Each structure stands twice: as C-alpha cells, then as structure tokens.
C-alpha cells in the first residue's frame, strides 16, 4: 500500500475511535444522570412511605390510647370503685339530722287546770265550768295565778311554770328545764335523756346528747363541727367551699376543697380518689393508678341549724260555778237560810269535798220587792 493511502486509513480509524469514545462517554453521563434521578425519586418515595407509616402508627397509638381510656371508664376492675358508686365517683358528705325536742306537753298545748273534771251536777246543785283569767286558783296541790292570754304562774307538785302565754318563760318538772326568751332562743335540758340545747335564736348554738355521744356546735350560717362518738363520725364545715367528713376514726376521709375539687381516702382499702373539678379523677389503689372521667363534686350541705327552744305552753285555768236551786231561800227580812235548804247544802258540801276545793266565794241576792236601798 502506498504511504499516502496508509495515512488516510489510519486517520479514519482514529476518527472512528474518537467518535466511539465520545458516544460512550455521553451514554455514561446519561446513565449517571438517570441513576441519580432514580435515586432521588427513591429517597422521596422512602421519605413519603416513612411519613405515612409514622402517621399510621400515631393514628394506631391514638386509637389504642382512646381504647385504653374507654377501658378505664367502662371495663375497669371493680376494685377501683367505691361500693355503691360509679367509677371515680366520691360519696357525698352526709349532714346529720337532729331529733325534735318536746316536753311532756306539746308546744301548742296548754297547761290545763280543771277542777271540774271529777265533778258533776246533783239534784239541787248545778256545777258549771268557767274559764278564769286574772285570778287565783287553789286546787289540791295546784296553785295558779292566771293573767290574760294564757300568761301566769303555776305550781303543781314538782312542776313549776311561768309563762307569757306566747311561748316565752320558764318551765321545770324535776326532769326537764326550759328557759325560753320568747324568740326561740334560750336553754333546754332533759336530765333523763341526757340532752341539752343552747340556741341564740338564729339557729346557732350547741346541741349535746350525752347518752349517744353526739355534739353539734354550729353557727347560724351552717358552719361548725359535728361529732358522733357512737358511730365514730365527725364533720367539719369551715366555709361555703370547704367541708371534711371523717368516718370510723379517720379510716374514711372525704374532703371538699371548693370548685368541684375534692378527695376520698379509704385507709382500710388503701384507696384514694382525687377529683380535679375539671372532669377527671385520679384513682390510686395499692400503688396502682388510673385516670378516669368524673363529674366535679357537688357542694356539701350546711350543718343543720338548731331548732328553737321548746315553747313554754300557756296556762288555761278552768274553775267551776256552783248554782243552788231556788230551794235555798231566806225568809223576808232575815239573813239566815231556811231549814228546808239543809238537804241541798249537804249535797253542796259533798261536791266541795270531792273537788278538794279549798277556796270559794259565795254570791247571793234579794228579791225584787221594796227599794234597792232597802234590799
């Protein structure tokens, strides 16, 4: 081959090699770009998948938490529940009820002095009951001085009464003593029952039952202290938003702290319930705790006000009027009674003795003949 032709062939071969190399380099570059792009898309896809999986997991966790809360409210072990109440519910603070205080006579009754109850009319003697006011009565062991409207004084055996007729006054019968100031305030003592009462007229004061170990010290606004030794209960109300109830030597303590917040402690069961007043209650039993939905606590009631001191009943005095028939007469111009009246007078004596009447007045009158001055 000629030298010139050889060089041409060599040039063509080199040109082809250069072109092939450039082509491969471009292909390699394109391939790299493609791989890079694919890689970037894969990372984005992985990140999206990771995000989706995280959201799914959070959703599942949220559903599990919701299921757990629902389980706590609906399917919780009964050991967390106060017997007789709902889950998370704290028993209300029960306020005491005091008995009514009455004396032998009811407050609206009257001390009746009736000397006619065993007396009846007999032929020639008519016995009629009469009501006495502003007078003195002596009958058996009863002595009374009556005023108007049921007021007066009376002594009957060991019973002594001084009354204004409207509930005020003093009363004693050897067992019960009452001092009523007229407005319901005063003192009451029942020695047999062991009960005493001191009242200020507005419901405040002190009630004491020695036999049952009950003491109530209360103000007119319902705050104060109550203690029942026999049932081992104590209650303290310090304000409108604070009350504490202790039962059985502090084994159970219920406290109201105000705004629906309060707690229940049962030392015997090692159970504690705390209500946050915001719709939740934390319950702890032997170190195990749960949180449940719970209504805020209701305000406790006030301690009971004291009843007024029993009223001192008025006095109603009934005596008798004895009328003798017309057979008991005087002769004209004479003051001595005719002998034919002896039978009637002897019956009168029987009536006076039967009624144990110790004091009486006699009224008589003349006929209508002659002038008033002469008669």
Would you mind describing this structure in some detail?
Helix content is 23%, strand content 32%. It is of the alpha+beta class and 375 residues long. The protein has an 18-stranded antiparallel sheet. A hairpin with a 4-residue loop joins strand 15 and strand 16. The protein is rod-shaped. The N and C termini lie far apart (205 Å).
Determine the fraction of residues in helical runs and give it as a percent range.
10-25%
Main beta sheet:
18 strands, antiparallel
Order of helices and strands: HEEEEEEEEEEEEEEEEEEEEEH
Please count the helical segments.
2
From the N-terminal CA to the C-terminal CA, the straight-line distance is 205 Å
Mean pLDDT: 78
Helix and strand content put the structural class at alpha+beta
The backbone outline, from C-alpha atoms, is: rod-shaped
Number of beta strands: 21
Uncertain runs with pLDDT below 50, 5 residues or more?
22-39, 63-73
Query: What oligomeric state best describes the polypeptide chains here?
Result: single chain
């Amino acid at each position: 081959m000629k030298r010139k032709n050889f060089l041409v062939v060599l040039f063509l071969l080199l040109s082809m090699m250069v072109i092939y190399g450039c082509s491969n380099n471009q292909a390699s570059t394109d391939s790299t770009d493609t791989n890079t792009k694919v890689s970037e898309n894969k990372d984005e896809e992985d990140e999206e998948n990771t995000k989706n999986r995280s959201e799914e997991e959070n959703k599942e966790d949220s559903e599990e938490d919701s299921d757990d809360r629902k389980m706590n409210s609906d399917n919780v072990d009964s050991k967390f529940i106060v017997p007789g109440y709902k889950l998370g519910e704290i028993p209300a603070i029960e306020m005491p009820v005091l008995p009514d205080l009455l004396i032998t006579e009811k407050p609206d009754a009257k001390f009746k002095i009736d000397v006619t109850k065993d007396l009846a009319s007999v032929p020639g003697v008519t016995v009629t009951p009469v009501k006495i006011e502003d007078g003195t009565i002596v009958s058996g062991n009863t002595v009374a001085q009556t005023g108007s409207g049921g007021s007066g004084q009376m002594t009957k055996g060991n019973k002594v009464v001084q009354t204004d007729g409207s509930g005020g006054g003093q009363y004693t019968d050897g067992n019960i003593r009452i001092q009523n100031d007229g407005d319901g305030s005063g003192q009451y003592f029942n020695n047999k029952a062991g009960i005493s009462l001191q009242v200020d007229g507005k419901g405040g004061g002190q009630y004491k039952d020695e036999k049952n170990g009950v003491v109530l010290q209360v103000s007119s606004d319902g705050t104060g202290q109550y203690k029942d030794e026999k049932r081992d209960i104590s209650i303290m109300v310090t304000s409108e938003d604070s009350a504490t109830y202790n039962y059985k030597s502090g084994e159970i303590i219920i406290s109201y702290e105000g705004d629906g917040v309060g707690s229940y402690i049962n030392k015997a069961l090692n159970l504690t319930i705390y209500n946050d007043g915001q719709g939740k209650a934390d319950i702890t039993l032997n170190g195990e705790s749960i949180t449940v939905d719970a209504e805020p606590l209701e305000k406790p009631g006030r301690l009971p006000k004291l009843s007024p001191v029993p009223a001192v009943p008025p006095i109603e005095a009934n005596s008798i009027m004895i009328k003798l028939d017309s057979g008991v007469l005087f002769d004209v111009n004479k003051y001595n009674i005719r002998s034919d009246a002896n039978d009637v007078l002897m019956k009168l004596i029987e009536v006076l003795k039967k009624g144990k009447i110790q004091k009486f007045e006699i009224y008589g009158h003349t006929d209508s003949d002659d002038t008033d001055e002469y008669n």
